[in-house]
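Hello forum,

I keep getting stuck at the same step: I have a sequence, I want structure tokens, and every attempt I make locally crashes halfway through. Rather than fight my setup again tonight, could one of you with a working pipeline run this one for me? It's a single chain of 415 residues.
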Amino acid sequence: MIKKRGFALVVAIFVVVIFSVLGVVIVSLMSGESLVATGDYSSIRAFHLAEAGFRYTLASSLAADSDWSNNSNFTMNLSPGYFTVSYTYRSHKTCVIKVTGVVNGISRSISWGIVRSGLSGAFSYGIYCDNINSQTLYINNSCTIYGDFYYDGPVVMQNNAKLVNGTLYSDSLTLNNSASVASWEPIQAPVNPPQFDTSYYDNLLKETTMTATSALNLTNSAVLNLSGQTLYYTSISISNSARVNGPGTLVATTGNFQLVNSASIGDNVTVIVKGTSSLGNSAAVGSNFNLISNGSISLVNNQSIPSGATFFTYGDVPFSNSSTFTGSILAPSGEVSSTNSTVFNGLLYAAKITLSNSTKLNGAAAVNQIGVFSNSVQVRYDPSKFPSTIPQGLEGAGGSASSEAIIINSWSEGF
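Reply #2:
Ran it on my machine without issues. Output:
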């Protein structure tokens, strides 16, 4: 009987030990699962915190910044942890940004590659000049600049010249007489000039290789209806109240184009010219007028070009005598010069620009050189004057010209 009671005691003790071990194991498993669950939850929160950090950086640092090449890394506390922002690549209009979110010691990292589309940053100034010949720019005689101005070289302002409501960026600045600037900053991170692709216009100019048998001499109130056609002539002259109605295309295969003496061209007409082009003496064109000229384009004597026009030339573009232009001028190897109360509204891209005698430029210009800059010239940076779409050939062509867009072009997660 005593032996049975002893055996029962041993069994009881063994059962207690087994259940104790099982209890410890179960508690350990439950604790481990709890820790795993907690870790998973913290990891998810860290991932969302990284995404929040990117959105914060995009809105607060990148959207309004025209130059990403000098952006700084930073860390910011944000419940339930913090995030760290670092740039693994930076340039003027592109960057790769890495954001790490940390919650309860657990981190998740995400990298985004982003690019700013739309107009080049060079068009963020009233005038941008990369000054390829390293010349000193003299701004004289009551010239006034409204908004930012960029000149990659030394600038001398004198004789009541002034810059208001903006910053002058240059290598150096000398103010003589009563000249003044609202703000000046030395160039620390050079802005790249616009990239321009002429292939679109080169393809259009190939139309001048077609055969034409006669010249077009439209005069004395005569009317030509294009009705959507493309018509080829050796040269084109429209004068004395004659009119061409669009839509359609005129091509001068070997000679020049002339529109003068109250002659007019209707809406949605393109003119392609092998030689030179001239418009003047109160001639008129309609909206969305495109002039693609291998030679120079001149506008004189009360010539008015309305909204939506695009002029492309491999030559020069001289304006004079109260002419007005609204649209885009593209002269990648030529000089745009304007005198005597000329008004230019829109985008201008050229190898060189010369402004004098009460000329007004409203919009933005990007050039390689600046010539004369004097005699009551006014330059006003005004994006509202930009065309509704970016001209073909400029960086980001096909998008909105009035504003830039930020595009995410890569995404990756780091562990």
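Residues 121-385 form one domain. If your local run keeps crashing, start a new thread with the error log.
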